[in-house]
Amino acid sequence: MAAGLEGGWNIRLIFQPPNSPDMNVLDLVGTDDIIRAVLDAFQSMNSETLDTIFLTLHDCIRSILAVNGSNQYTLPHMDKLKRAGTLPVSLHCERSVYDSAVLKR
User: Fold this and answer.
1) Each residue of 53-90: pLDDT tens digit?
2) Nearest partner of 87 among 60, 47, 44, judged by Cα
3) Which one, of 67, 69, 42, lies nearest residue 54 by Cα?
4) CA–CA separation, 60 vs 17, rounded Å?
5) CA distances from 81 to 19, 31, 45, 98 (A)
6) Pair 75, 63: CB distance under 8 Å
7) How far apart are the first and last CA of the chain?
8) pLDDT of residue 21 exceeding 80
9) What are all long-range contacts of 79-84, with beta carbons under 8 Å and residues at least 24 apart?
10) Which top-rank group of organisms is this from (predicted)?
């Protein structure tokens, strides 16, 4: 901490959320802009597309947790489940994966 104050500098470390291409969101200025963008996008898509998007997002987050924040992961293919009409509503995250990610903080 003292090294950040040497020479008249005021350097501090602060927590910042992850900034990876897999997790980025639109750069929207305020809450109203975010709500408007989400509503517009939501209304323009059919439910099948939304199901696929949310399942993929769940799988990305689960996979990122499993590889300790790395982007070196592959997503399982869900096309077979989709064709059979058996896509799950949500995906299960194993307790060990969750605990490992949370306890590393």
Assistant:
1) 888 888 888 999 999 888 888 887 788 888 888 888 88
2) 47
3) 42
4) 16
5) 31, 36, 21, 25
6) yes
7) 20
8) no
9) 82/52
10) Eukaryota
